């Protein structure tokens, strides 16, 4: 009986002890940048869904309407064409798809290359949709 118990716990330890927690998998958050080819891991502090490369700021056209919905079949690279600052001080990057021209705004992430963000052309604040373009900051 003791033998069975020991074997059971060892197996759990080696295979499932440090398994991935339920919920979004780390793989879902990491990707290889299609522009600069760097590997981009999940956000160190968790939090928001990462949708662009922190090194070159390029994004990928995978979302159709909302950030993270992954409903677009385009898959083109989205270039950071500009940035603006919201009244609350939040910096927003304007991405434009190189393939279809779709434009989207993304809040910068904590580990984005901030100098690169500041070097982008400043564009006037605009919103894709008057009411619900993006969820407001929590
Ligand atoms: Zn990149
Ligand atoms: Zn596109």
Please give a structural write-up.
The protein is α+β, with helices and mostly antiparallel strands and 138 residues long. It has a domain of 95 residues. Helices cover 18% and strands 20% of the residues. The chain contains 3 helices and 6 strands. The strands form 2 sheets. It has a 4-stranded antiparallel β-sheet, with no helix packed on it. Strands 1-2 form a two-stranded antiparallel ribbon. Strand 4 and strand 5 form a beta hairpin. The relative contact order is 0.14. The C terminus is likely disordered. Bound molecules: zinc ion (2 copies). The site of one zinc ion has 8 residues, from loops.
Q: Tally the helices: what do you get?
A: 3
Bound molecules: zinc ion
Enumerate the strands of the largest sheet in spatial order, edge to edge or round the barrel: 3-4-5-6
Rough outline: globular
Strand and helix order: HHEEEEEEH
Write down how many β-strands occur, each being a DSSP E stretch of 2 or more residues. 6
β-strand percent reads 15-25%
What integer value in Å does the Rg equal? Answer: 20 Å
Mean pLDDT: 77
Instruction: Give the helix/strand class.
Output: alpha+beta
Q: How does the major sheet shape up?
A: 4 strands, antiparallel
Distance between the termini: 53 Å
Question: Are there runs of 5+ residues with pLDDT below 50, and where?
Answer: 130-138
**What portion of residues is helical?**
10-25%
